[in-house]
Amino acid sequence: MHPRALRLGASVAAALVVAAGVLTTSPASAAVGDDDPSVGAASPNGLVVNEVESNGDDTDWVELRNTSSAAIDLSGYAFLDDDSSHEAYVLPAGSTIAAGGYFVIDQVSATAPGFDFGLGGADTARVYDPAGDLVLRYSWTAHAAVTYGRCPDGTGALVDTTASTKGAANDCSSPVRINEVESDGGTPGDWVELTNVGTTTVDLGGYVFRDSDDTHAYTIPNGTTVAPGGFTVLDEQDFGFGLGKADSARVFDPRGDVVDSYTWSAHAATTYGRNPDGTGAFAETSVPTKGTANRFAGVVTAEAWPGGPDERVLDDEDTFTGDLSGIDWTTSGSTSGSAAGQLWAVQNGDGLLYHLVSDGEGGWAPSNAAGTELHYADGSGTPDAEGVTVTSDDPGAVYVSTERNNDVSSTSRPAVLRFATSDGSQSTLDATDEWNLSADFPGLGANAGLEGVTWVPDSWLTAHGFADEHTGAAYTPATYTGHGDGLFFVGVEGTASVYAYALMSDGAFQRVATIATPFSVVADVQFDPTLDALWVVCDDACSGRTALYEVADGAFAATTVYEAPSNADRTLANEGFAISGVCTGGSRATFYADDNDTDGFSLRTGTYPCDSSTPGDGGTPGDGGTPGDGGTPGDGGTPGDGGTTPTPTPGGGSTPAPGDTAPGDTAPGGSTPGAGTSPSGAPAAPSESSLTEANRGTLTAPATARPGETITIGVGTRYAGQEVHVWMFSTPTLLETATVAADGTVTATIPADAPAGEHRIVVTAEDGTVLGWTTITIDPVTGALAFTGAEGLGVGAVAAFLLLAAGAGVLVLRRRRGTPASE
Q1: Who has the most CB within 10 Å: 23, 36, 474, 576?
Q2: pLDDT of residue 676
Q3: Is 503 helix (H, G, I), strand (E, B) or coil?
Q4: What is d(CA 404, CA 353) in angstroms, rounded to the nearest whole number?
Q5: For residue 118, what pLDDT is reported?
Q6: Omega into 152 within 30° of 0, i.e. cis?
Q7: Cα–Cα distances in Å, from 569 out to 121, 448, 518, 563?
Q8: What is the DSSP code (8-state) at residue 439?
Q9: CB 333 within 8 A of CB 651
């Protein structure tokens, strides 16, 4: 995707930009495309830029408003972003904007005309009159979480709005929302949870909470805040009245205006909560989740990233020129290659292919520094290279997914191209094969095509009972003559879905599966034989979330959704994702390709946990054995045992992936749930496998804490007087053995050396039974609220996921240009 490419999902604004300046008139001879930063977002004739959408709706758009008392004829006006090489969009004859009215300059779609370029995270909207004079100009440095709009409508500064209001008055209301209600004696007492769907922290001081009785009024104290995407709880012991079986919860701002309200006619069996958080309708939750994201039966809720909290820069500054998009990890092509493997990456704007190798000291760099120019089979064109993958059945080849030919940028050409190379040493490469999938995607936008691509072996698919939607039966590879030994899975931006294809040697293709995702953008897709799963990746449009899909009943279904690493910059346009098959020191490396080349860096790395104690983990490149299961080298192993599927190795044959076990397969210390005590007499640590969705959220704890801080944990009054053990994971650490107080709580102290990041608080009974668990973020630096926007990942309840509440923000740790630091 181009840095100013179409963005279809919500992301986080890093700054509020108000374009101001002295209005000037450019010379009559000015050409459309000439720029003048002194021109502002309001024109003397009353025409103003009123709202800008660059990433959250189905199309990008700019809304104009006429603040004058007379209609304005916009026929012949032209629109551009900050790139003067783009062809300006000229408004058709008859375009008028009534006095006090609105006019939307919209992006082209399959059913409507418009501009054919996207608006980026850092971009400019420019409007020219028919004479070519620049009359309106508004710039921003980051996507708005919702939209940039004037508050008050038509006259105020352009700021983040609470809701998108295309063609209508801007929504400048409070972003505070009631998110969850406990009316039947919770822990402790009744409570109401508030959230913030905006992008900046809201001071709740002076807000008033009432139930259905106007005389019951609680003024929230000054200094009480709710962070973007965060949660703040009002407890009965503070507001001083109970909530009834048939009652209401109402929140008023300091002016006395109703901010939000919810009314119910009977107690919930659990609690009432919004699905998704902050924005959805209220429904009964599966368990109370006081102070954390709501949970519902059948809904996969985003979890904290289980690996390290950081994304560390890998490349030297300005190694790439921007637009790095797809990335793929594979083992080294020979036994003399690096144990760290190798990376393939593609750059979309100029159609370049990079082959990257490790320097052995934590950095990676291209072995082909200038990149390899890619062209179509006849030597022409510049493929908009978005994704890249290699296969074990075709050594010496790299496959690239594309959106279009950049030389004809307004025409869609969603295709998979094959290039013959083992190391990217060629200066140019012409495709040997092309599978143009346009027939399967009629009306697909030129900038909304194939973002990611990965390859999954037939042997793995058949062993896991994969079903063929084309035949309506179990997938049978022999059905597709000449398709090789596996299927290609592509992520399509414009549909936010993943599709599996058999690509035949004669250029024909057949769709075999359609996989809906909860994301508004699919930025990449990666097969992970170690986890027996498919990674589906969203970029900054979803704040860097990822999902793991596994085959169930013949189809890929999401089993886990992860937030970005806790310290990562969620505004990074991480359009490429790859994960190493090598387990070292309990973790595998993850790789991210930033399309925006933020601060001059495009490549970053993180970690994902694995079990490095498994015999054979890491494998031997090229040995054909079965890493991790103790099998005989060359026996091929059994697909699904946690690492027996061959990992593609261009030029070096197929190499089995490491035999890592998935996190949670083996509990530290080998403890058994319910074991009670260890042979030494000390409490036995609960196993990972005993921490299930059924017992998650059945206790409460603060969302964040600092090392050395004592926290209060709500277990429930039914356990009052009982002795319990309080643990903190990742590695099980006993924090406290305590007796539950009459109010159902216990206290425990966070270790002074507790590492920063996401952990789990677990409470077990004397016999070792898990009473409940929840997550907590340890922040040793500021103690500020961590990002808690696990509102799920769907554009509606039908997707059965919780999405980032519109405008969810994040505390971003920025890095100075040129300083290697975590993001």
Answers
A1: 576
A2: 52
A3: strand
A4: 16
A5: 87
A6: yes
A7: 14, 24, 21, 12
A8: G
A9: yes
